[in-house]
Design a protein that fits this description.
CATH class of the largest domain: Mainly Alpha
Distance between the termini: 74 Å
CATH superfamily of the largest domain: Cytochrome c-like domain
Structural class: mainly alpha
CATH architecture of the largest domain: Orthogonal Bundle
Radius of gyration: 24 Å
Mean pLDDT: 84
Helix content: 40-55%
Number of strands: 6
Largest sheet: 2 strands, antiparallel
Number of domains: 4
CATH topology of the largest domain: Cytochrome Bc1 Complex, Chain D, domain 2
Bound molecules: heme C
Low-confidence stretches: 1-34, 447-453
Shape: globular
């Protein structure tokens, strides 16, 4: 959170000179974004700078890296799929690509020599406009060449290493979304951004048995490893129905909504690499569209925020003075080491050094306030408990990390801390997370047995075999007709 505003102000200073340029390159720009695109330069053509904006809006960097050299692992149930070098290197990158090659990659998941796995979000990019692909292609030619292969290469076990199988998968799952009727122009722009460029659904829409989007549950929330990408439909109780359009804009621009929500983990990355750079009217379009999608109620309800129950800052000097907090924390640590099970002492001893004695964090050290966050107010404590069990990796290289506590704390202690923060900082009237809940959550996030893990893929294989059989039969029929 603070790191985003810090980043923004650093960029503002560093990039002031190119701010005027960014304005020139915008499509229909009326207002200047808070953050200026670092990869837009006055030396480049308007087309290239437009491409740089598309690359940001489509968040290519999230997977291909800040320098586009690839090698990032995308975890899938079949194993890790690594992104590739997409700099214009002729040997290791896409230096030999024609514009049509790029179009086939984005729209069909087809690289010149092989089919791609949908870890590359082509099911979403398939709807990308010609003019945007044209600009993106021009921009990718200007990226510095890196003549290096990514450190890791994808090596999936048989039969998933047969890339041609993706033809069958694509037949069922591409494109991943359909246009909605009755939208105004702004909302249509929002739909294009959400579905095709920003591919929000790759995280927020749950998957069906073939691992494609479950279209009926569009944007209603999905598990992402230890993370949970929440319901962002306008449902009042389980979605973001209580958010105003301005709330959505603020969250996507800064990664936080004061005392309401925080963009941690994968969402923090989406904000850091992509949404913070979007033009004001594009963020407004997204917000307006998210208000127009069907509300879907799920069983993961979020209690409405009750501001009167949130803590007040201990006092300005303590909240902002690390030394003043030290005494409180030291006392709590002594108490816990002497066997105290007081939830407050446990919180202070384990979490207080980063999130502060009052939950308002340590802005100076970039540790986030946790007061009021939606992750504390969910009926299901899973999101919060997973964070405590597994920690949180910061969303940029320089952001601090939250350590994992699964080895350090007992299930009772984690339950006790979870209840403490849900009530004291989340403002809930009560919370009854038990040690059994912690054990259940730890067990579900542990390694799954082979068949369950591969069930989705086995289903795809089943379907592909079925399609092959049908084609075989049709051919046989045609042949037999010819003979007569
Ligand atoms: C969610 C992660 C993700 C995002 C976002 C993403 N990619 Fe990819 N991309 C991948 C992965 C993983 C592969 C390799 C897939 C494979 O091995 O089948 C890939 C492969 C490619 C390839 C094929 C390279 C080759 O010839 O082998 C190109 C080109 C490409 N991406 C361009 C882009 C562009 C341009 C963007 C932004 C518009 C983008 N990618 C966004 C993950 C991503
Ligand atoms: C060493 C510092 C540190 C400690 C100790 C720590 N955290 Fe964190 N915590 C962080 C950081 C850093 C983030 C933000 C990570 C990011 O940028 O995504 C965070 C994020 C969070 C969030 C917000 C997550 C969200 O996205 O909604 C919660 C809730 C949280 N921590 C709870 C706790 C609890 C409970 C404990 C004690 C068991 C704890 N933390 C201990 C550093 C810490
Ligand atoms: C890489 C995966 C990923 C992508 C892409 C992504 N999100 Fe998220 N999103 C998440 C996760 C995970 C969270 C939970 C963050 C947390 O609790 O700290 C989240 C949280 C949110 C929230 C806060 C919800 C709440 O109740 O607190 C909103 C709003 C949101 N995302 C909107 C979007 C929009 C709009 C897009 C596309 C522009 C998008 N997200 C793209 C993973 C993603």
């Amino acid at each position: 959170m603070k790191r985003f505003s810090m980043m923004l102000s650093m960029l503002a200073i560093g990039m002031a000179s190119s701010a005027a340029m960014a304005e020139d390159t915008s499509l229909t720009n009326t207002s200047l974004p808070n953050a200026t695109l670092p990869n837009i330069s006055p030396a480049n053509s308007v087309l290239v700078n437009r491409g740089a904006y598309i690359a940001r809006a489509a968040d290519c960097m999230a997977c291909h890296g800040e320098d586009y050299t690839g090698g990032t692992a995308i975890e899938t149930p079949m194993g890790e799929i690594y992104s590739t070098n997409i700099t214009p290197s002729k040997r290791y990158g896409i230096g030999n690509y024609t514009e049509n090659d790029l179009k086939n990659v984005l729209q069909k998941g087809r690289a010149p020599s092989h089919m791609l796995y949908p870890a590359m979000p082509y099911p979403s990019y398939s709807g990308m406009k010609e003019e945007d692909i044209n600009a993106l292609f021009a921009y990718l030619q200007t990226v510095p060449v890196v003549d290096e292969a990514p450190k890791h290469k994808t090596d999936l076990p048989f039969p998933f290493n047969i890339r041609a199988l993706m033809l069958g998968w694509n037949f069922l799952n591409v494109p991943s979304t359909q246009g909605r009727d009755g939208l105004n122009e702004t909302q249509k722009r929002g739909e294009y951004l959400v579905n095709n460029l920003e591919h929000c659904g790759t995280c927020h829409t749950p998957r069906n048995s073939t691992m494609g989007f479950d279209k009926k549950m569009y944007l209603s929330g999905a598990q992402l490893g230890h993370w949970y990408a929440p319901n962002i439909t306008p449902d009042e109780s389980s979605g973001i129905g209580s958010w105003s359009e301005q709330d959505i804009i603020t969250y996507l621009r800064t990664g936080e909504l004061d005392q309401r929500a925080y963009a941690g983990g994968p969402m923090g990355e989406a904000v850091a690499h992509s949404t913070q750079y979007l033009k004001q009217e594009d963020l407004s379009a997204i917000a307006s569209y998210l208000k127009a999608v069907p509300a879907i109620q799920t069983d993961d309800k979020v209690s409405a925020i009750d501001v009167s129950r949130l803590p007040t800052r201990v006092n300005e000097s303590i909240t902002h003075d690390l030394l003043a907090q030290k005494d409180y924390l030291a006392q709590a640590k002594t108490a816990v080491s002497k066997g105290s099970n007081s939830p407050e002492a446990l919180y202070l001893a384990t979490c207080g050094s980063c999130h502060g004695v009052d939950g308002y964090g340590q802005p100076d050290a970039q540790y986030s306030p946790i007061v009021g966050l939606s992750s504390l107010r969910r009926d299901k404590p899973d999101v919060l408990v997973n964070m405590i069990l597994h920690g949180v990796v910061g969303s940029t290289n320089t952001s601090p990390i939250m350590p994992a506590f699964s080895d350090e704390l007992s299930s009772e202690q984690i339950a006790s801390i979870a209840n403490y923060v849900r009530i004291s900082f989340g403002g809930l009237a009560s919370s009854d997370v038990s040690a059994a809940d912690i054990e259940r959550i730890a067990a579900t996030s542990a390694e799954k047995p082979f068949l369950i893990k591969y069930a989705g893929l086995l289903a795809i294989l089943g379907i592909i075999v079925a399609i092959a059989v049908i084609i075989f039969i049709i051919r046989a029929i045609i042949r037999s007709k010819h003979r007569h």
